[in-house]
Amino acid sequence: MSAQVSTAMISPISEKALSEAEHRDDARLWGRQPVNSFRAAPPANTATDDRLRQSGSAGVLEFPIQGYDPAARVAQELLAEWHGYVTRVGPADNPWFSAVLTGKKGVGVVGEEEDAQIPIDDVSEFDRELVSPGNFFTLSVIREVRSDGQPRRYTQVVFRRLPAYQNRDLEAAAERARQITSMLNVV
Amino acid sequence: MWSDLGRPPADNEYEVTVLGPGYGESVVVHLGQGQWLVADSCVDTEDPLRGSAPLRYLRTMGATSQQAVRYIVASHWDDDHVRGLDAVVDAYPKARFVASQIFNEHRFHEFVEAMAVGSQATNGANVRTIRNVYRLILERRQPVMHAIVSRELHSHPRIRCWSPSDLDHQDFAQFLLSHIPIAGQSMRKALAPPSANLSSVVVSIEWPETSVLLGADMLHSSDDRRGWAAIARECERLGVVRSDLVKIPHHGSENAHSDWMWDRLLTRYPISVVAPFGRGRIDSRPPTSADIRRIRGLSERVAVTARHSASRKIQKDPAVARCLREGAITMTSRTSPLGLVRHRWSPSDSKWTTELFGPAYRAK
Q: Is B221 in the A-facing interface, judged by CB distances under 8 Å?
């Protein structure tokens, strides 16, 4: 979150935008995919908010909200999404990782399996420790339109934090392995 | 392609059919008298059911009885060699399952069972097929055989295993030990190490008139206790009939080339069959054009099951494709066409005849 202070009207729309911003941060923290549907905070409403604020219309209560920038309100659309897992991590001087991807959303990609090479730069610092063979992530291509109408497209890699192996499960697995090897009919 | 395969082999005909890539590679061998051997499995990615390609081939050839397949060989644990293998084991419960000794050791199953913990979250963790194989084997008390260097699996024709060497076996076991999940680690997919190729089972089949070498994914190593050097040494010690037909190892890649194999295990200018690798960047997938040139120079005939260029390109939304390009993210489809190269030997001809199906082609 940025530390800047901005002013905004309390309105159903701005509350929604705030809640979504929090949801995105929450999802990021827990490794969930933050963008999974079309979310709109229509620029027109933002402009209306700004006009009202500038005119100082009576009956509108204004007060600053810490860390909230109305210009950051965006409409986002998920253009394509893949679920993947890391198969190999490149050398330190050429940082990329290779992965197997399965298309989950997007024209022509759903259900398709692809091999990919992805720059590690695309992974947030928070997730870098997870770039390791066998680990799972989601790759998304997102289109967003900022409140000033400026569109942009970008890719986003979010790693999934799966549950940890538990001792009791691993002990049970070892026991099953013992049973399998003892029951094999080796000739 | 499947409807053009023609008649099954006669009882006195031998056959070696290489299928691939689709996803993976497989070799189906008619040993004679209606008996078959299957080495590895692949799936036809054009088939909506993604069924096992060797199983479909066998059924097309009328090999439907449970006794038709005598041996099912799992050359090594890599996704592009085991996919669909459970369906083959399921269809032929009388077949002997042949795999390197590590497959039947506790540490392998401990690794597989541990990786399978939380398999819903990890979508099977890449161990689903091999678990299915062993579930079936245990349910039916199906016999399993260790592929040990120089072991004779069958006498007429003589089927022998030539690998993995002790050192390659030990290395793979070490990998398993060091990658068994431990409590507190996040669940993940199981991945075979590149060195798993050295743990491949290489098999020779010797009939009275001819013989073949199935090279699996065996690699060259500068250490003569490993890879092709170890195999060649063992073959020389015990004596092996040089093969006049070879399934080229590891998709014809440079790192699988071994002068030992060409000089000591094969006749001069044998018939070579290559199953291309169907994954990764197309320009780096083996066999490259340089690999094909090298194999042509050493062979009488070269047949390849498919061209890389025949791989289907996935048409993405232009905006998505542009965004991925700008982000330096490259993607390559894993959907490669499946082709078949079939060689048959009949006593009347006393030579191998080549037939090509689907995208397969003659490179020489």
A: no
Higher pLDDT, A10 or B252: B252
Q: What is the ipTM of this complex?
A: 0.88
Segment B345-361 shows an average pLDDT of 94
With 60 as the cut, is the pLDDT of residue B106 above it? yes
Q: What are phi and psi of B206, to 5 degrees?
A: -115, 115
Better-scored residue on pLDDT, B335 or B66: B66
Cβ contacts of A187 on chain B, cutoff 8 Å:
96, 143-145
| Chain B residues within an 8 Å CB radius of A161 | 186
Q: What does pLDDT average to over chain B?
A: 93
Report the side by side order of strands in the sheet with B330-333. Answer: A151-159, A136-146, A74-89, A96-105, A113-119, B330-333
Interchain proximity A181–B109, CB inside 8 Å: yes
Alpha-carbon dihedral B267, B268, B274, B280, rounded to 10 degrees: 110
B277 interface with A at CB cutoff 8 Å: no
Instruction: State the Cα–Cα distance between residues B207 and B224, nearest whole angstrom.
Output: 29
Interface mutation target, options B329, B332, B335, chain A, most CBs of A under 10 Å? B329
CA distance A147 to chain B (A): 21
Residues of A in contact with B145 (CB under 8 A): 186-187
The pLDDT score that the predictor gives to residue A69 is 64
Strands B96-100 and B143-147 turn out to be parallel
Own/partner pairs, B279-284, CB within 8 angstroms, 24+ separation: B279/A115, B279/B80, B279/B332, B279/B334, B280/A98, B280/A115, B280/B332, B281/A115, B281/A117, B281/B330, B281/B332, B282/B308, B282/B309, B282/B311, B282/B332
Site of tokens 């827990």: A30
Task: Name every chain B residue with its beta carbon within 8 A of the beta carbon of A108.
Answer: 314-317
Distance, CA of A52 to CA of A122 (rounded, Å): 39
pLDDT at A32: 41
**pLDDT at position A71:** 60
Amino acid sitting at position B140: R
Could you tell me the pLDDT band of residue A61, with boundaries at 50, 70 and 90?
low
Cβ-Cβ contacts under 8 Å, B327 against chain A: 119, 122, 154-155
State the smallest CA–CA distance between residue A29 and chain B in angstroms: 16
pLDDT at B88: 97
DSSP state of B189: -
